[in-house]
Design goal:
This protein is an alpha/beta fold. It has 13 helices and 17 strands. It has a domain of 254 residues: NAD(P)-binding Rossmann-like Domain (Rossmann fold), CATH 3.40.50.720. Helix content is 44%, strand content 15%. 2-acetamido-2-deoxy-beta-D-glucopyranose (NAG) binds next to helix 12. This is UDP-glucuronate 4-epimerase.
Amino acid sequence: MAPSLPPDTSKTTKLERYNSYLRRVNTTKLLAASSTLLFRATLLISLLLLFLFTLSSPTQPHHHRQLLSSTLTPSWEKQVRQSSTPRRPSGLSVLVTGAGGFVGSHCSLALKRRGDGVLGLDNFNSYYAPSLKRSRQSLLLKHSIFIVDGDINDAELLSHLFSLVPFTHVLHLAAQAGVRYALRNPLSYVRSNVAGFVTLLEAAKAADPQPAIVWASSSSVYGLNSDNPFSEHHRTDRPASLYAATKKAGEEIAHTYNHIHGLSLTALRFFTVYGPWGRPDMAYFSFTKDILSGRAISVYVTQDDKEVARDFTYIDDVVKGCLGAIDTAEKSTGSGGVKRKSAQLRVYNLGNTSPVSVKDMVVILEKLLGVKAKKNIVKLPRNGDVPYTHANVSLAERDFGYRPSTDLQTGLRKFVKWYVGYYGIKTRVNKETATVGEGEVVESS
Ligand SMILES: NC(=O)c1ccc[n+]([C@@H]2O[C@H](COP(=O)([O-])OP(=O)(O)OC[C@H]3O[C@@H](n4cnc5c(N)ncnc54)[C@H](O)[C@@H]3O)[C@@H](O)[C@H]2O)c1
Ligand SMILES: *[C@@H]1O[C@H](CO)[C@@H](O)[C@H](O)[C@H]1NC(C)=O
């Protein structure tokens, strides 16, 4: 309020100053009055919103704060118990994390089919179309498998589940997958693959009985390894992506929980899994979509123009590997968080043992779809993808009879059949006579 102007003694200016002073006083009063009104209105609206939120929270399973209100309902607990109760004598009771995902949904169905109890857990995040995850959920529900809507970082939820059900096994498949997405959202990998895994292991360690844990690592841990085929004893300390680094971190974290707390832990290094209900972010899937809609696809070659190849592994083979690992997993040895004696710690490759170049994969797709692809040949960017993967699966074969039996042609045929059915695509292709470049495909509206 201290005027820095030189004092003005003229009458008019004094009057003007007085008037402007009055105006200011009035505005201040008005402001004060309106802000009181605003404050009261805000308070009222906040209370109203809070009230409405409390009413509606049980139907918003994504929000963590509502855990107790939604999980304490008897019907929710009944669903959890029913879903996880085995239907065969000495059947297992398995918590499948990532059950709304590609591999998780297939494994859940396979376990249920043979009479084991299965409870799913998934946060249905939008890394790719949640509608596809919800469709898998509906399929599982038809087979009496309930998926809890929740995050593996929710310690309270996990300990609640372990207190409700004496799980014999956890099949831990929830993760932030994909290599290139790490450039856009690096912390999602840390949250799900590192922090989430630790939260899960903490809950499992404290559970009574402690479950045995089988979980998904990745072939990407081989990183810059150039010995072929990739064997479990090869170096895995040079990851080429943040995704690979978080999976490798998981393997080290697993060692710790095995060593200190006696948890039985088995890591499965999957090699490019594909098939019906697959992941839309993977090349075989997005290529199918783009080829059908006439969009050009980017086919990678290495920096020195060599072919990029993958050890594509069909989903049914991977499911057999997961079940084999579960069936040979020994019990955890700890109780009350304390290890009683040494427990099992294993790592296995689950691949197909016959790499196919991406170029040849596209040729197979072209034949199956009856459409010639528009291709851009692009150098593999140095952002995480490795040029070549090839699994040595002799350890998994020795320990649980793992023997992949589906070649890429056969597996992709099953994928394409599912794809056109799921997305309602009408093909005017005569499958028997179609040759590359012929046939017409229209997407139904
Ligand atoms: N498909 C492959 O080729 C492949 C290869 C190597 C490793 N893996 C690993 O296998 C596992 C399964 O892969 P997928 O292909 O089925 O992937 P996916 O993305 O289809 O399935 C993962 C599921 O986990 C859920 N999820 C993610 N973060 C979660 C969290 N914090 N809490 C609860 N749920 C969460 C997702 O919503 C998704 O449904 C992953 O661990 C993946 O890293 C897959
Ligand atoms: C495959 O792995 C096994 C066990 O680790 C090893 O004995 C064998 O030599 C490997 N085979 C090849 C071809 O590298």
